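Researcher: Next entry in the queue.
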Amino acid sequence: MKIHYHRGDLPSGINFGHSVAVDTEAMGLYIPRDRLSLVQLSAGDGECHLVHFPLTSSYDAPNLQMILNDKNIEKIFHFARFDYAILKYYLKVQAYPIFCTKIASKLSRTFTDKHGLKDICKQLLSVDISKTEQTSDWGSDHLSEKQLNYAATDVLYLHRLKALLQEMLKREGRESIAKACFDFIPARCELDIQGWNEVDIFQH
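Model: Structure for this entry, 204 residues:
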């Protein structure tokens, strides 16, 4: 794994191809309150680009925003509902089209209730990733080497997971419902941002 650290934006000229794995780190899970601190990206080639937004940094990141807004680049997330929403709220982007490995796992692997990234990496790839830095202080002006390694690991395996989960969705005949779920994520995130995160608007 090779990590490239960037402060405030990606450098120009980086090419992720037609599919980029994306993850985020924030000060918490409540988007209007808990600011975006880090965006991780990988082309699935063993290299990870980390864009750090310390408190003194603005969210004007034209190179990163251009890639996230590019509709010709698929974004692979794990739990896209959070990552898409926080990217839209702070960076003003629409990171679409989407593949969410968490949704794909829930739709194709109904024999288990373990759909966290650590779980599916272990079960599908025989890779044991550490989550010990997940709840560390991401608001720091200087992130530790352990934090950077943890953050990079969150995108390193998403391309491989997507390929395996796509085959499972196909096997179970659930590709179309998965795509419908992925297509709904922007609307679901807009509901979250506007305050309907705990309300089921489809309920009677």
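Model: The longest helix spans residues 175-193.
Researcher: Noted, moving on.
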